[in-house]
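Researcher: Structure for this, please.
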Amino acid sequence: MKKLFNITKYSVSFLTSVSLILAPFAVSASNKDLNLSDPNTMVCEALGKVGIGCGTAQATPYVSNTATQTPTLNGNTNNNSNLTAAIYNSGNKSKRGDVTLVRVSGQIEIYEIIGGKKHFIPTKDIFYNYGFTDNMIQSITQQQLDRYPRVKVVQTEGDKNNNYYLTEGYMLRLIPHKTVSESYGDRDEDIIVISKKEFNFYPPDQFVFLERPLTRDVFQVVNGKKRYLTPMAVQRMKIKPDEIAPVNQTELAYYKTGAPIVF
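Model: Predicted structure, token format:
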């Protein structure tokens, strides 16, 4: 990713030159990809079209908007040449530093691209609490968003001793031991820190099933102990399918076995 062009550091004469570069793009119907909504972005895109650089490289993931180029994300080459839109650092600062915020065109869900992964921001209240602003959001396609794996392991501010799985159903489950995390292939560098406000938003994940071999036997995991729930118990407790998360054999075996819940 490249820093946005800082026009305040340059002379009036240079700005005049830039305006001459921009003029044809502003009026040409064939240059619809030029972003005229933000002055800094407009300058940067125009300079890029004439082969002039726009600052020093950043570590934030970037996808080229040129279909013939091969995009690179965090040093990993991606061969999908069908991508045609750009994901780039907005250049704005928030409580989380320089960030990339994206939203699929026509949808309301907002994601933070961090460490090469997508992190869903669950509410606008949490969004603003991070210091994000609406003008930091970049529009992308669903295809582009799908290229990013989701954030799965989180910590909360002020607590580096406990890691949690953020499930696909947006619940949190404490990772009981590092060996369990390693069995999923999770790495320390995959962990992101979320605010206490966001942490408190998620309900705890206490119902699990064994993912491989696939069984729908449901267990309740509380305080390091697992308890089998009979189908009748699941029904009477009104447990919804999206409240039950898959776990692997290593994690399920780690928990001590308690008395089953049969009612």
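Researcher: Any notable elements?
Model: The helical segments are 12-27, 39-49, 124-129, 142-146, 178-183, 196-201, 231-236, 249-254. Confidence is low (pLDDT under 50) at residues 1-91.
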